[in-house]
Amino acid sequence: MRPGVDAQAAKGVAFRMWIVAAALAAGLVTVAVRAVQLQVVQKDHLGGMARDQYVRPIELKPRRGVITDRNGAALAADVQADSVFVDPKDLPPDPARGPAVARLARTLGVDPGPLLRRIAVSRRFAWAKRRVTPAESAAVKALGIPGVHFVQEYKRTYPRGELAGQVLGVVGDDGEGLEGVELSLDDDLQGEAVRLDSLRDGRARALYPERGGAGRVREGARVELTLDQGLQHAAEQSLAAAVQGARARAGMAVALDPHTGEILALANAPLANPNAVRHPAELRNHAVQDAFEPGSTFKVFSVAGALEERAVGPEDSIFCENGAWRVGRHTIHDHHGLGWVTPARILAESSNVGAGKIAARLGREKLYRTYLAFGFGAPTEVGVQAEARGTVNAPRADISLATMSFGQGVTASALQITAAMAAIANDGLLLRPWLVRRVVDPADGTELLHATPTPVRRAVSPQTARTMARFLEGVVVEGTGKKARLAGWRAAGKTGTAQKADPLGGYSADKRFSSFVGFAPAEAPRVVIGVFIDEPKGDVYGGDVAAPVFKALAETALQSMGVPPSAQLPAVAKAGAPSRATPVEPEPDFPVVESAAQEAERARRAEQGGVAVPALAGLPARAALRALEQAELMGELAGSGRVESQFPRPGEVVDRGTRVRLHLAPPG
Questions:
Q1: Where does residue 504 rank: exposed (0-12), middle (13-18), buried (19+ CB within 10 A)?
Q2: Cβ contact 394:368 at 8 Å
């Protein structure tokens, strides 16, 4: 007789079966929930992670836009070039790896140490050198080193070499502008890149790009500058020659169209080649980014403001104190003492005393407003990074009012000074100088930017501007700017020879900033040119070192523009005939402003047996040297002809045996 099923045991089995079933059901539910979570909730995230394992996005950068001059000549453009990279896993194993990398480094002209370190920390990719020359590419291929590969990139080139180097700037390894126009218009020049997906296998090797892409690569826009290639070249060559001849530290030149504000040339010396920059400082655009005390060129704006405010009339006589004017505890000097003279003569002979007296008539507030009206103390907004704004502060003392009138105690850039002179040439209307003429989309020719002349304000009335033009023509005809005379055209301008401020206080005894700023033709200006020479040696006068550069550049500009010669040239004094204005710059080798302490020192020297320097102006060289010998002094000659200026100045008390420098010039 079979025993019956134990009810208690059956219940236990059933219970265990239910537990197993519940566990299976819970597992199925968990799997289903997880499946929903993975397939629905986290679908995008996990899909992206999967794609990251086998898809590598590639950014295709477009060709960078071309930069041209105003006539379409290319100044900067992209060309294709090989870039060399290394796959460390495919390089020869040690110990052959080190010598192989060393051969590669020598061929590319790079340091093998950093290259080895980059390879050591990279799994599959390390740059060896980007954008190599064709010769370097061929040499690397000839090595036949496994693991060394090539990819084509665009390389920025500057086909004219040094031409406008500081204006154009430079592009970095990643194709981004770092200086100059390349930086200021980087967004337009770069264009729009395209991203493509490249499939990879399990070893991370690229197989092929997926089709479809993200659209067309848009090439960078074409940038047309206002520069004239020929005039820019002439400016750079003339400026570089002047800087070298004067053994100067640097030089700057600016040429503007006075009626539009277009910058036709913007030169700096020493020159810089953006194809081979040795140091970033080479690319500094000093003509726009540096401010300095301008000196006597500022007399133009002081006199213009006084004429405008009717503080002085064109035919008024100003007493110039015979060359020494006491202002408080200071004495302002002229090298060539003048008595009663007109504003035109003050400009022609560059009298500091006369400019200070005119400023005193104008007054502090009006002189300050005049300088602001001509654009000083504010950036021109030309579009160059780090543009200097200069400093112009309202004078608080009589001596500050006087010194500001002849360009001490204020600072300005070469571009600001030239733009202010352009306002005189443009009937008193100040225009914003501009460098970029057009920005064009190369795909369809759409103009993304089209610049037009932008008036800033009226600095002075047309009548005042024309009077000043007449005065400034006299500076060139019979004043300090004789070396700026043009062959066939009338010219107007102003010289300047400014003492440089000493960082420790006061003014340097031997460092000068020499300049000439003017326009031509004087009767109907077509070009305004400013030339500035930093720290010339030997002949330091603006009329000697800067005016000849103006002459060369102005003649080139007028010839290229097809400007007909002036119908009537002004009469020039014949050799040996007396001139109405002796062409003398403010003496650059002694303080223009002498304090009471300096005067006391001069008196002390006299008491201790010093000798007074004789007045030698007008004497032939031999007679001047004899006079110095009789006074127990030594002479040093520069130039030929008769004595035009001297240092130390006449009457200065110096020690016996002191060397006196004489600047000679032909009479007339």
A1: exposed
A2: yes
pLDDT for 589 beyond 50: no
How far apart (Å, rounded) are the C-alpha atoms in residues 515 and 543?
Answer: 8
d(CA 517, CA 532) in angstroms, rounded, equals: 8
Does residue 387 surpass a pLDDT of 70?
yes
Beta strands (DSSP E) in 428-568 are 429-431, 436-440, 447-450, 455-458, 492-501, 507-520, 527-534
Nearest to 550 by CA among 578, 522, 531, 575: 531
Coil, strand, or helix at residue 179? coil
Q: Determine how β-strand 67-68 pairs with β-strand 222-225.
A: parallel
Going by C-alpha positions, the residue among 262, 287, 255 that lies closest to residue 555 is: 255
* CA 220 to mean position of chain CA atoms: 25
Q: What sign does the dihedral 375-377-378-382 (CA atoms) show?
A: positive
At 342, phi and psi to the nearest 5?
-85, 165
More confident residue, 396 or 578: 396
Q: Which of 72, 143, 109, 148 is nearest to 437 (CA)?
A: 72
Q: At what angle do helices 299-308 and 414-425 cross, to 10 degrees?
A: 40
User: In this predicted model, which residue has the larger pLDDT, 298 or 642?
Assistant: 298
> Left (φ > 0), alpha (ψ -120 to 50) or beta: where does 4 sit?
beta
Beta strands in 521-650 (DSSP E): 527-534, 593-595, 611-612, 634-639, 642-647
Q: Is 157 exposed, middle or buried (0-12, 13-18, 19+ CB in 10 A)?
A: middle
- Tell me the catalytic residues: 296
- DSSP 8-state symbol, 261: -
- pLDDT at position 147 is 84
The secondary element (H helix, E strand) that includes residue 402 is: helix 398-405
pTM value? 0.77
Asked if residue 529 lies in contact with residue 254, where contact means CB atoms within 8 angstroms, the answer is yes
Q: How many CB atoms lie within 10 A of CB 325?
A: 22
Q: Which residues contact 658 (CB under 8 A, 6 or more apart)?
A: 613, 633, 634, 648
Distance in angstroms (rounded) separating the CA atoms of residues 143 and 622: 73
Q: CA-CA-CA-CA torsion for 549, 553, 558, 559, nearest 10 degrees?
A: 110
User: What 8-state DSSP symbol labels residue 218?
Assistant: B
Structure tokens at 588: 């650059």
**Helix 97-108, helix 134-143: angle, nearest 10:** 160
Length of the chain: 668
What is the rounded distance in angstroms from the CA atom of residue 489 to the CA atom of residue 519?
A: 10
Q: List b or e across 25-35, with b for residues whose CB sees 16 or more CB atoms inside 10 angstroms.
A: eeeeeeeeeee
Strand partners of residue 48: none
Q: Is 245 helix (H, G, I), strand (E, B) or coil?
A: helix
pLDDT digits (tens, 9 = 90+) for 95-137: 888 888 888 889 998 888 888 888 888 777 788 888 888 899 8
Gap between the Cα atoms of 478 and 480, Å rounded = 7
Q: Which structure tokens are listed for 80?
A: 């294709």
CA nearest 221: which of 436, 36, 39, 382?
A: 436
Strand order in the sheet with 194-200: 55-60, 194-200, 206-209
pLDDT at residue 636, rounded to an integer: 81
